[in-house]
Amino acid sequence: METEITVIEARDLIKSSENNALQLVDVRTKAVFENESLPGFINIPLIEMSQKVNQLEGKKRTLLICKDGSQSTQALKLLESCGFSGQVIRGGLDDWKRIIQS
């Protein structure tokens, strides 16, 4: 599985998946997440990821998002070191707003 997915691929995957098939994780800070987030995403800030990794289900496909993809990439490396796999939504919320919500 590729480590990145485009916002269009992510949107289509979210639309076509059963509710329990995916884990959608926003790794931005709690304050930023509460100010603006996408439906269905849970918030596990990057700085808390190592302590909260147990909140994730290893068998589910995990998509990670942040503002621009940089924090998500760091979060993915951390998850992989804990035995999890996932994908970064390339371009993050910036691309999502520019491509999907425009």
Form type: globular
Physical arrangement of strands within the biggest beta sheet: 1-5-4-2-3
- Tally of separate helices: 5
- What's the Cα radius of gyration? 12 Å
The structural class is alpha/beta
Unreliable runs, pLDDT <50, ≥5 residues? none
Structural summary, described in words:
- With 102 residues, the chain is of the alpha/beta class.
- It has a single domain (4-100), classed as Oxidized Rhodanese, domain 1 (3-Layer(aba) Sandwich).
- The chain is built from 5 helices and 5 strands, in the order βαβαβαβαβα.
- It has a 5-stranded parallel β-sheet.
- α2 links the parallel β2 (22-26) and β3.
- It is globular, with a radius of gyration of 12 Å.
- The model has no long low-confidence stretch (mean pLDDT 93).
Please describe the structure with a list of short key phrases separated by commas or semicolons.
alpha/beta, 5 helices, 5-stranded parallel β-sheet, Oxidized Rhodanese, domain 1, globular, 102 residues
TL;DR?
Helices cover 40% and strands 17% of the residues.
Secondary structure topology:
Blueprint: E1 4-5, H1 7-16, E2 22-26, H2 30-35, E3 42-43, H3 49-52, E4 61-65, H4 70-81, E5 87-89, H5 92-100
Parallel strand pairs: 1-5, 2-3, 2-4, 4-5
